[in-house]
Amino acid sequence: MTQRIVIQPVTRIEGHAKVTIQLSEAGEVTGARFHVTEFRGFEKFCEGRPFSEMPGLMARICGICPISHILSSAKAGDMLLGVKPPVAAVLQRRLLAEAQVLQSHALSFFHLSSPDLLLGFDAPPAERNLFALAARGEEAFVRNGIMLRRMGQQIIESVGGKRVHPNWGIPGGVLGKVTPDLKQQVFAELPKAYQAMREALDRMKHYIDLYPDEVEHMGNFPTLHVGSVNANGEPDLYDGRIRITDGEGNIIADHLDPRRYFDYFAEAAEPWSFMKFPYYKPLGYPNGMYRVGPLSRLNVASQMGTEKAQQEWIEFRQRRSANAAFHYHLARLIEMLAALERIERLFEDPNLIGADTRSRAHLNEEEGIGSCEAPRGILFHHYRVDPQGLVIHANLLIATSQNNLAINKTVEQTARRYIHNAHPEEGMLNRVEAAIRCYDPCLSCSTHALGQMPLVVDAVDPDGKTRWTLRRGPQS
Amino acid sequence: MNSRRRTWFAIGNPLRGDDGVAQHAVSLLRGAPFVRQVHQLTPELAADLEGMDEAVFIDADASAAAVTFEPLECAVTRPLASHHLAPSEVLLLARSYFGFRGCAYLCRIPATDFDLGKKLSAEATKHAEEASHILKLRLLGAVEDLQDDDARTLSSAACGGDHGFRNSR
Considering A292, A320, A321, B161, which has the largest number of Cβ atoms within 10 A of its Cβ? Predict the structure, then answer.
């Protein structure tokens, strides 16, 4: 008798989803699907709006990475105007891109994922959360995570005016201002921040050694990796060219213009999910599976471009773990370290406080495409406008959806390892969730949808009758 | 105004109608630099309570029938699923990780209309004024008297210790 396991909701990720695991008559896993069950439709309802409103409108997609949506949208606006933003504006944009990586990755690692690592994958869900860590003597660890996130958020708030959804980025530049006080404040906190990163990196390396089975079986398979790099091959969050490597680390495409993203990537749809399935066109669907985000950015890079992160990157590459989703966590921490170093460097640049932050022009193009590296991976905004500058078509290609194929395969691999004889155990549910969490998926972004993500496990017989169901989360 | 070290959070999205009622209420206070206006509560806000004597969370509440100002207890209200926290959870983080031992209160303001737009409903506007009045009294140290009269009791049990604001008359 065939059975189906549904895990709903999946917790500690951003958005609504569920997982279905198909079992054979013998109770072994034959397939798995990661369903995204919500829809928001930003692309549709921004039609008819002036392109100048788009950065502010698009920021509302996500409360975690509004800066990325603002940046990609503003860059699409730059293209529509046919202008280059002034140097000070570009530096501000770079600063907030780094600050956002810092705060978003801190949230992902310390707040959402660290309970799995610190308390163990077999710990009861009720105890496996941030609040329980105090009882385990982890106060300093949690404080460090909160301090790092606050540092990123304070930079965003100071420059953009608000921590969430700042009205800051615009076509042609920015509306913000960097004050000398902010530099003093950030520099005063940097020593503690570097120390916190040192400790977190040491802890993460310990957990990699502690959980070899999870490293091996929670999303460890070869895929393509996509990321943006500058002319030196260093990760570039704001304005890089696309590089693609295969599962062995070989560069298969390089120096790709992100404004031609539709030449390289296409999106497939499946009837069981609102999230699309992007793939690398030359390899077709689904063979063109690729991953984006911290792991991929470190995989495609030739070097990091900053001293401390470079040392960590060398060690990371020596692990020869390019395809293990578990290593997203380590990659995330290395990116946080790099972000601190780049923030420090940006504040040393006197042009950062320049007063000229906006290039003005009338509409000069009918099509605008902007991209940047969001915390979860490369993000594209693509608009077409009418002669009055009203949006007539918008397409967003979001990081989490670009990981969709890989997330599905990760769920299947994890289920195959931890489910036998058709009897799901708590440890299995935890590991399936944790495997998804490696990608730090944001379904609010990827479906442009809102809410929390579900996890359901149904056992269904060949006649379609549900034999049993497991649920966990807010609706349970 | 007494000299307590305080951080207040006015929570809500002012572009979603009555969801912005808390921010409107605190705007009526004028000159309250200890108020943080936030879209939503996130973990790092717990750090803002370090060294404070008092935390007040002011929020729109669709289930509230009247403005309330009541002690807030630490609690985990649901499985921790994302970055968004409840007031009781921020309080728990602050108490657990940032040594916050001050008093904590939740001010709930009735709200009914959460449609897109900056405009508050007439009811929410009225409730914002009432909430602002209560908050002003709180700043003047007179809230407990009001609470006694209205049977909305503030008690030192809500505090991490005795912080001496009971005798405000």
Answer: A292
Burial (0-12, 13-18, 19+ Cβ within 10 Å), A317:
middle
Count residue pairs from A and B with Cβ separation < 8 A.
Answer: 82
Retrieve residue A419's tokens. Answer: 């489910």
Which of B81, B96, B98 lies closest to A131 in CB terms? Answer: B96
Select from B39, B47, B92 the Cβ nearest to the Cβ of A147.
B47
User: Which of B9, B11, B80, B90 to substitute to test the interface with A, most A CBs within 10 Å?
Assistant: B80
Contact indicator for B144, B105 with CB cutoff of 8 Å? no
Q: For residue A358, list its beta bridge partners.
A: A173
Residues in chain A with CB shorter than 8 Å from the CB of B44 are: 103, 146-147, 149-150, 153
Write out the two tokens for A386: 């009418």
Q: What DSSP character marks residue B15?
A: T
- A129 touching B (Cβ < 8 Å): yes
What separation, in Å, do the N-terminal and C-terminal C-alpha atoms of chain A show?
27
How close are the terminal C-alpha atoms of chain B, in Å? 13
Please tell me the distance from the alpha carbon of residue A179 to that of residue A353, in angstroms, as a whole number: 7
CA A464 – CA A365 distance, rounded (Å): 54
Of the candidates B44, B78, B96, the beta carbon closest to that of A153 is on B44
Let me know: does B24 contact B120? Beta carbons within 8 Å. Answer: yes
Per-residue pLDDT of chain A (476 residues; tens, 9 = 90+): 566 767 666 665 555 667 888 888 777 888 888 877 656 678 888 899 999 999 999 988 887 889 999 999 999 999 999 999 999 999 999 999 999 999 999 999 998 899 899 999 888 877 778 888 888 899 999 999 999 999 999 999 999 988 778 889 999 999 999 998 999 999 999 999 999 999 999 999 999 999 999 999 999 999 999 999 999 999 999 999 999 999 999 999 999 999 999 999 999 988 888 788 999 999 999 999 999 999 999 999 999 999 999 999 999 999 877 899 999 999 999 999 999 999 999 999 999 999 999 999 999 999 999 999 999 999 999 999 999 999 999 999 999 999 999 999 999 999 899 887 767 666 777 888 889 999 998 876 554 433 344 455 555 555 555 555 666 554 33
- Rounded distance, CA B94 to CA B89, Å? 8
- Would you call A212 helix, strand, or coil by DSSP? helix
To the nearest whole Å, the CA of B167 is away from the closest chain A CA by 34
Report the gap between the CA of B12 and the closest CA in chain A (Å). Answer: 12
By the 10 Å C-beta count (0-12 exposed, 13-18 middle, 19+ buried), A438 is classed as buried
Helix (H, G, I), strand (E, B) or coil at A360: coil
Q: Is the ipTM of this complex over 0.85?
A: no
CB contact under 8 A, A63 and B83: yes
- Is the torsion defined by CA of A281, A283, A286, A291 positive or negative? negative
